[in-house]
Design brief:
This protein is an alpha/beta fold and 227 residues long. The protein has helices at 16-27, 60-63, 89-110, 135-155, 196-207; strands spanning 7-11, 31-36, 47-51, 71-74, 119-123, 161-167, 218-221. Helix 1 (16-27) packs across helix 5.
């Protein structure tokens, strides 16, 4: 990593996992630029907020054109559920835009300017391996793994790592989102939901110099759900 104070761009900064990542990085001494439609997680001298509707994908590259960062973390996400026979193609398209196309546009805009030792992290999902009623969502999260592995190969000569942090059901507003009506979140075997701060801690590690040899990987934070 560079000797200057590191600067991270974090999407989905206003709530849930994104807000936890912002808080953790600020506590660790990072500068953070947060992206979300709503305001950021309070006032902090090292935090700047960029109000942006990421569903408007054509605006993404221009919005970050003048931002120089050490790392970016794509944490923005949405869950829409549906079983075969009742799938909504608009839901699939919305999730693909937010999860995959935004990741692609941000990487395309920022990666050429990342310094030696830069970092890219996507927040995926344990569901990427497949789950009933979540096929469309799972497909978008699985795509992030494919992108991360492909770009990890391309960026390795510059010492830039690309990884996915993939939690199981996490204690965020998504758990009670009406969009998942009829498909309740599954409690992990540890007897509680994953906490956003636990996901943020994993992200902080992947952003650290100690993780410089880890790239193209997916870390599951599942509380035993994958066992």
């Amino acid at each position: 990593m560079t000797s200057a104070k590191p600067h991270a761009l974090v999407t989905g900064a206003s709530s849930g996992i994104g807000a936890a990542i912002v808080a953790r990085l600020l506590a660790d001494g990072w500068r953070v630029t947060g992206i979300s439609r709503r305001g950021g997680p309070g006032e902090h001298p090292a935090y700047e907020h960029l109000s942006l509707d990421l569903s408007e994908t054509d605006a993404v590259a221009e919005a970050v054109a003048k931002i120089e960062v050490t790392a970016f973390v794509h944490a923005a996400g949405v869950l829409k559920v549906g079983e075969l026979g009742a799938l909504n193609p608009e839901d699939s398209a919305a999730m693909w835009r937010l999860h995959v196309e935004v990741a692609e546009r941000l990487a395309n805009a920022l990666a050429p300017r990342l310094p030696q030792g830069g970092r890219i992290i996507f927040i995926g999902s344990r569901t990427a391996s497949g789950a009933a009623g979540r096929g469309q969502y799972a497909a978008t999260k699985a795509a992030l793994v494919a992108l991360a592995r492909s770009w990890a190969i391309e960026l390795a000569p510059r010492g830039i790592t690309v990884n996915v942090v993939a939690p199981a059901a996490t204690q965020t507003p998504m758990l009670t989102d009406p969009a998942r009506a009829g498909i309740a979140p599954k409690l992990p075997p540890i007897g509680r939901f994953v906490q956003p701060a636990e996901v943020a801690a994993a992200v902080a590690f992947f952003l650290s110099p100690e993780a410089g040899a880890i790239t193209g990987q997916q870390l599951l934070i599942c509380g035993g759900s994958s066992l």
